Amino acid sequence: MSSKSAVRIGTHDGTFHCDEALACALLKLLPQYKDASIVRSRSQSVLDTCDIVVDVGGEYDPSRHRYDHHMREFQESVSTVMKRPGYDWTIKLSSAGLIYCHFGHEILRNILSDVTEDRVIDEIFKKVYDTLIKEIDGIDNGIPMYDEEPLYRIVTDLSARVSRLNPQWNSLDVNIEKQFEKAMALTLEEFLEFVQYTRNVWLPARDIVRHAVESRFEVDSSGEIIMLSQTVPWKEHLFQLEKEMNVSPSIKYTIFESDNAYRVQCMPVAQGSFVCRMFLPEAWGGLRTDALVEACGIEGAIFVHSVRFIGGHKTKDGAVTMARKALEIGRAMQCKQ
Known about the structure:
This protein is α/β, with parallel strands linked by helices. Helix content is 44%, strand content 11%. The chain is built from eleven helices and ten strands. The chain has a five-stranded mixed beta sheet. It has a five-stranded mixed beta sheet with strand order 6-7-8-10-9. Helix 1 (18-27) packs across helix 7, helix 4 (95-111) packs antiparallel against helix 5 and helix 5 packs across helix 7. The longest helix is centred in the middle third of the chain and has 39 residues, at 176-214. It is elongated.
């Protein structure tokens, strides 16, 4: 893996892993390392000639551009490296996480040259870390996802796909340097997909949810029901926006269009939870059309799931009526309890 460039990125030779493949690929997104050669060696004398070293060398010193994470005393995380509010992840960093922490904002500004707001770059940085880099950090450092043994294992994650690019025990005449180049290309493609998804899909959805929160009192005087102008992923954004905007009382129901009808969905108590802040009324659970209309007294009601986390109505106004009545019944139940 050679280049005429005098700039050299050092990493270890032998079996490669997802974290240093991505770390090297990320660095080459920067002007100062764009044409750098990748030097794979464990020889300290060779590494000493490199301008930047990742995942090897036994040293973490950003002032000298040394980014290894294998030392016994190394316990750096996003929280300790960034030292900024909102950067609260505590998982130990791999070389990918280290490079992302130190260079990620600059990398994102280069990729998204038309984005001028630091706030937007910050949001993208955090989302990409939380959805991609954190996974790589956790896998490389052997941090378990669960307290107990999982019922099955995921073998198609990015780290596993990079691992399979290594020469196998019975393979013949495989050029490991070429395979490392493939690993860099694979991790870079994945990283860029996450960046573009965050910028083009995730962030615009946040604006729609924010508008819905700001307009909540136009939907109902309680402020506990929101109406999405478009159907977008909303739960994660809503949790964050409630904190940022000090929303009180908390949102109970979200209304959105789906399949030429309208849904009333309950807000869960936490991200990923199946427990809702206020379920739809028990008397409505599992009913459809005529039976549901008879139970709720709202013409045009279509269904309520048996678990009561979501229901549907033919019209927007009808969905609002369902949400308002559910809120009224839910409050009455809370008062009795």
